[in-house]
Amino acid sequence: GGMGTDGDHVAFYSQDMNQGMQERMRIETGLRAALGNGELLLHYQPKFCIENGKIIGAEALVRWRHPVRGLVPPADFIPLAEATGLVVQVGEWVLEAACAQARQWKDAGLPPIRLAVNVSAREFTASLPGRVQDTLERYGLEPTWLELEITESTLMHNIDRVIGIMDRITAIGVTLSLDDFGTGYSSLSYLKRFPIDTLKIDRSFTIGLPSDANDCAIANTIISIAQQLKHKVIAEGVETVEQLAFLKNSGCDEVQGYLFAKPLEAAAFEEALRANWAPGHAHRAA
Ligand code: C2E
Ligand code: MG
Ligand code: MG
Ligand code: MG
């Protein structure tokens, strides 16, 4: 008997699945090689003080310079790396590369900044604090150079264990920020127990400011929670002067977004940092 429509559909579907799996395996094999090949690199997106417009830090964001595909954004390989566990090795590479870069900037006499590294839930293990401390020591960096950005997904399992790891990290003097805040499922009753320094307002909320009343309410609520809990608050994804004005008026401390700068190559970030701190330089956030 011939195949019915359903049969064709199933055959087509499983071929799709097969192609999807082959694609995933190609990415995984490629990424494993990329880790040793020097194909990964970091871009640096400046973070600004909303009050005086000065660059106070940067977020290190990983990219993969693929020989065929060109510059691959993290959205195209981090989720897979998280699923396979390879994100642990990627994270090790990122921390090492960020600290090496910070050391170069320190040696070049640039103003000290706080360099933020994104850490996946799977990296947030008992060995992380020791690795962070060891890396800072090897590069001769004060812990105030480093910040770790974690997301609510990190906080979802075994909260006491997670808080223990957080406490060990902050004991070193490294700060923690809660990325994409409000998009996950973290409970407010736990929030007060986390030794975090900064809440990051997710871009999905910043985007509707100031025209969307719900986004305005959410942004104001996050800022208010941060203030009550004595945390700093930064808005990501700031693209317009109207968004900036709203955030400044609402008491947000820091901003990050395309209005000021996209993630930059190291040399371009260094240039921005020098220019921003030059005497007399007035930034538009000021
Ligand atoms: P994230 O940590 O929330 O980083 C912010 C993302 O928003 C970055 O995308 C940044 O380029 C983008 N962005 C910043 N300002 C604006 C803006 O004004 N408009 C728009 N449209 N986008 C803006 P990117 O670099 O593609 O990174 C995406 C995500 O990949 C990050 O989200 C983070 O979750 C993950 N990621 C990046 N690097 C790493 C890493 O080293 N380790 C881990 N585990 N995850 C990483
Ligand atoms: Mg981040
Ligand atoms: Mg974020
Ligand atoms: Mg985000």
From TrEMBL:
Domain EAL: 24-277
Transmembrane regions: none
Name of this chain's protein: Cyclic di-GMP phosphodiesterase Gmr
